[in-house]
Amino acid sequence: QVHLVESGGDLVHTGESLRLSCAASGIIFSINSMGWYRQGPGKEREWVADISSEGIYYADFVKGRFTISRDNAKNTVYLEMNDLKPEDTAAYYCNAHLCSDGPCRNFWGQGTQVTVSS
Questions:
Q1: How many Å apart are CA 118 and CA 12, to the nearest integer?
Q2: Which is it for strands 66-71 and 76-81: parallel, antiparallel or unpaired?
Q3: Cβ-count burial of 94 within 10 angstroms (0-12 exposed, 13-18 middle, 19+ buried)?
Q4: Cα separations in angstroms, 46 against 20, 42, 43, 94
């Protein structure tokens, strides 16, 4: 069984920074990619960034402000968020496409709340 556990969400003010973490644990043979999605109040879940051997990619609305990184030894992905804005308020979800004791597939974390006040 695989678990993804996010942490780091908090209430901050406009312009401040946060660092989110997501650790994958359990039976993991390989991780193809890890990334972040978010879902704001009353909105659909949207892709934020992902990282794999093929590269690092960001949604346009976070380019230049957010940085994704990964520690392969710890099966952990990070999201450094700078210059936060009220529109960044959302539950942030970790996603990993990995191979466990079954077909390789996507796994999701439970989410961590980021709230940015103006």
A1: 9
A2: antiparallel
A3: buried
A4: 17, 12, 9, 12
